[in-house]
Structures are given as structure tokens and as C-alpha cells.
Amino acid sequence: xxxxxxxxxxxxxxxxxxxxxxxxxxxxxxxxxxxxxxxxxxxxxxxxxxxxxxxxxxxxxxxxxxxxxxxxxxxxxxxxxxxxxxxxxxxxxxxxxxxxxxxxxxxxxxxxxxxxxxxxxxxxxxxxxxxxxxxxxxxxxxxxxxxxxxxxxxxxxxxxxxxxxxxxxxxxxxxxxxxxxxxxxxxxxxxxxxxxxxxxxxxxxxxxxxxxxxxxxxxxxxxxxxxxxxxxx
Length: 233
Fold this sequence. Notes:
This protein has seven helices and no strands. By secondary structure, it is mainly alpha-helical. Helix 1 runs antiparallel to helix 6 and helix 6 packs antiparallel against helix 7.
């Protein structure tokens, strides 16, 4: 066999080996593709299950949050009703207390400068006269409140109001509510006006005490977590 014949045979053997290796590569590649597709489908199924679980969890959390909100509102309404009943009972007790009438009678009968010892001028509902000017306005300034998202703003405002009531203890509960809400502005003004109007239209108990007003404002204007801690404290 000549040298040229050997070269032709070697070339044919090389081509045959190359063809076999390429076919094996294609088979391996196709097998890997099938494996990747199968794993991809399995991964997609797992992701879908996780998404469904998350959606169900979010729905459950949302439902629980709504229930907690309803419970907080019911508690606030119950507290307001209790405060109103307490205020009404106190008012009835004051109206039926004969000592108040005796004090008023003795005061009217005593000359100016000779009032009974310990006597204070009585106003409506058996309380001392409010410190007001001739137009019925208080002689002190009521701090403004806009009802923003800042809880510290509300707590600071409430503390200032509490100090005013401590310095001027003769105001009735109704007067305290009117004075405190007289300087509402922005969101707080719109919210309070809507609250009073809706309670009146729904036939709900009106807010009659300063404490009831604080409870409503705390539950509606503060952040839930902060308000919860504040109410507990």
C-alpha cells in the first residue's frame, strides 16, 4: 500500500471518530436540556406553591388586623358609653345634693365680704365660675392640634391641655371638650367634625367627657403599637 493510500485510510478513520464524538455530544446535550427543563418545571411548581402560601398568609393577617381594628373601636365605644354614664350619674348626684343648694342659699344671704368660710362662687352644674372674659372666652390660649402622623405631637398637645385643666379645674366636661376641639386644624378638624356628625347620625352616644375624648383620639389618631403601649401605661 502506497503512502497516499495510508493517508486516505487514516483520514477516513479520523472522520469516523469525529462523527461518533459529535453524536455523543449531541445526545449528552439533549439529555441535559431535558433534565434542565424538568428541574425548571419543578422549580416553577415550588415557586407557585410558595406564592399561594404567602397569599393565604397575607389574607389571614389582613383579616386578623381588621378584627383587631374592630375590637379596638368597640372597646373605645364602650369606654365612651361608660364615661358618659359616669358623667350623667355624677351630674344627677350633684343636682340632688342638698349641700350645694344650702351653700348657694347661704352665699346669697351673706353680705359681700362676709361669705361663709370655704365658699366658692358656684356656676352651672355646681362648679366654680370659669375663668373667662366678658365674651365667654377663656383668658388663656388653647394649643393647636393638626392631627398629623407624629405621635409625639399628640402626646405633647394632650399634656399641655391636661396642665390647663389642672390650673383651671372649674370647667365642666362639656366645656373642656369644646375648648380642646376649638383649636383643631387640618386633618384633626376634619376628623373630629366627621366623628361628631357620624355619631349623631348613627344615634351613638355623644362624647361627654375629656377622658372619653382622649381615648377616641388616642385610638384613631395615633399609631396602633404606640397607642397600645400608651393606653396600657
